[in-house]
Specification:
Mean pLDDT of chain B: 97
Structural class of chain A: mainly beta
Oligomer: heterodimer
Distance between the termini of chain B: 40 Å
Low-confidence stretches of chain A: none
Radius of gyration of chain B: 13 Å
Strand content of chain A: over 45%
Number of helices of chain B: 0
Radius of gyration of chain A: 13 Å
Number of strands of chain B: 11
Number of strands of chain A: 11
Chain lengths: 107, 118
C-alpha cells in the first residue's frame, strides 16, 4: 500500500499570502492519480484537484496542483478567508489511500 | 445535479452490526464506481472499499476484510454497507462517495455519524 505523508502538519498564514502544501508518496504514483481535497469543520471533503494538476469543476484558479512520481504540491496563490481548512491528498494506484492532512490556519 | 443522500445517525453497542445506505441521484448510477470512506473524531480520512454498481464487484481495504460488506440496488440507485463486530474504534463519520473515473472522489454524501458505546 502506498503511504502518503503530508507536510507541514499545520501551516499558519495570513489572507493574501501564498500557501504551499506538500504530499510525498512512499512509492511512485505512476499514473498521476493524485487528488487534493479541502475539508471544513462539520462538512464532507470537497475535491479540488485530480490527476495531480487538473482543477475540479467550480474550483477557483488560485488553487493549483503540480508534481509527479513521489512528490506533489498544492499551491494556493493568494489566500482568501474561506481557504482556511484542512487539506488532504489521496492516491489511487492499486488501492486508495489518503495523507494525514495539513491544517491551514489563520496567523 | 449529483446528490448522495445518506441514512441517519446511529448508536450501536460493541459487538453489534451496522448497516448504512447511500441513495444516488442526478447521474447514471451504474456508470460510476462508489466508495465508503470514514473519519474518526479529530482524525483523517480512511478508505474502506469500492463497489462497481453495474456488476456488484467489490474490493475492500485490508483493514476491513472479513467484517465489511458493500452491496447495491440498481432499482433504487442505492449503495449500502454493513460492518460487523463493532468496537469503540468504529466510532466515526461514514461517507459515501462517487468515483470520478480518475482515481478520485468527485461527489460526497453528507456523512453519517456512528457512535459505538456500551
Amino acid at each position: 500500500e502506498i503511504v502518503l505523508t503530508q507536510s507541514p502538519g499545520t501551516l499558519s498564514l495570513s489572507p493574501g499570502e501564498r500557501a504551499t502544501l506538500s504530499c510525498r508518496a512512499s512509492q511512485s504514483v505512476s499514473n498521476n492519480y493524485l487528488a487534493w481535497y479541502q475539508q471544513k469543520p462539520g462538512q464532507a471533503p470537497r475535491l479540488l484537484i485530480y490527476t495531480a494538476s487538473s482543477r475540479a469543476t467550480g474550483i477557483p484558479d488560485r488553487f493549483s496542483g503540480s508534481g509527479s512520481g513521489t512528490d506533489f504540491t498544492l499551491t494556493i496563490s493568494r489566500l482568501e478567508p474561506e481557504d482556511f481548512a484542512v487539506y488532504y491528498c489521496q492516491q489511487h494506484v492499486t488501492s486508495f489511500s489518503f495523507g494525514q492532512g495539513t491544517k491551514l490556519e489563520i496567523k | 445535479q449529483v446528490q448522495l443522500a445518506q441514512s441517519g445517525a446511529e448508536v450501536k453497542k460493541p459487538g453489534a452490526s451496522l448497516k448504512l445506505s447511500c441513495k444516488a441521484s442526478g447521474y447514471s448510477f451504474t456508470s460510476f464506481n462508489m466508495h465508503w470512506v470514514r473519519q474518526a473524531p479529530g482524525q483523517g480520512l480512511e478508505w474502506m472499499g469500492i463497489i462497481n454498481p453495474s456488476d456488484g464487484a467489490t474490493t475492500y481495504a485490508q483493514n476491513f476484510q472479513g467484517r465489511f460488506t458493500m452491496t447495491r440496488d440498481t432499482s433504487t440507485s442505492t449503495m449500502s454497507m454493513e460492518l460487523s463486530s463493532l468496537t469503540s474504534e468504529d466510532t466515526a463519520v461514514y461517507y459515501c462517495a462517487k468515483d470520478g473515473n480518475r482515481g478520485n472522489f468527485d461527489y460526497w454524501g453528507q456523512g453519517t455519524l456512528v457512535t459505538v458505546s456500551s
